[in-house]
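User: structure tokens for this one?
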Amino acid sequence: MFAALALTACGDRAATAAAKKNAATPPPVPEIFWPMTRGGPALSGSVAAKLPANPVTAWTFAANGAIQAEAAIANGRAYVGTIKGTLHALAADTGKELWKFETKDAIMAAPAVAAGKIFLSSNDGRLYALAADTGAEAWKFLSEDKISAGAVTIRSPDGTADWVLLNGYDGTTRVLDAADGKVVWTYKADEPINGSPAVVDGRFLVFGGCDAQLHVINLKDGTLVHKIPTSAQIPASIGTFGTMAFCGNYANQAVAFDVVGGKVAWTYEDRQLPFMSAPAVNERFVFLGSRDKQLHAIDRATGQGAWTFKTGGRVEGSPIVFTDGVLFGSTDGRLYAASLEKGEELWRLDLGEALVASPAFGAGLIIIGGDKGTVFALRGK
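Assistant:
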């Protein structure tokens, strides 16, 4: 009996000591990656981290052509494509080139990183699956027209496979098996599709296109659930929050959709120039760049304008929203950060090249490419 009591007492002291040690050591902060366009399949452009303060250049890399494609950042590497069709794989900590891959036309969107592969869309009409460590081609899929939207990767609804979601300028949405590129299902729209597909509520795949409609598709099998009309073409990817979807269009509008209800929830009117970027969305706001040289912050629930931020050039790239600020580039060559509530400038950084590409954030770095071919990696002080 004594021995049993002694063992129990020792166990209590050890557990207490371990609890004190664990309480004194905070759990590690998960590293944030940006493995595909807009950060992931919800395509919200939102990061659960604070905005890097007073950023400085960590490194730069001279790519072989102008950059309009967003970077992907994952597993210690950054992947950036150029309008000459080259994908550069760079070490995220140093900017050293590890390998490169040549396509036959411009790369206009971020690749997707998943399942040990890089899924790269190109205006040559192909989706390439490349080995992430070497860039060797594993397989490729040939579309009927250019592919200017980034692929999105998810786990299949039944959890048995990795899927690649792909929109093409041929008006077709495809789901491919990531292992071999075989088609799982397809959906055909009437007009070209420019933006990447987004996933809503784990059930729906949504996208807009040149037919001025939001398409809501059953994710499991590609059957149509809703078509929700808008006033003009939708040129970019859709942002989401909960069961809502958001976009800009050529009618100078930002539009919110009730995906489940199949209807427009609100429309924000701007009578100057169209919204060309995909939105970034958090619980309060929808952020959209415009060719009127401004970033627009819109109340997510009501569609009322909250504030605008004026730059010296078009805001063509998509913003990133952090917990305490929003980040965006402009064709005036500057990267801007503004506060969430009032749009007050927090900092600006003059990079000296027009910024058409959207910024990406991962591995503690802001990475963005310029129209002279420079890849900028910035780190907070």
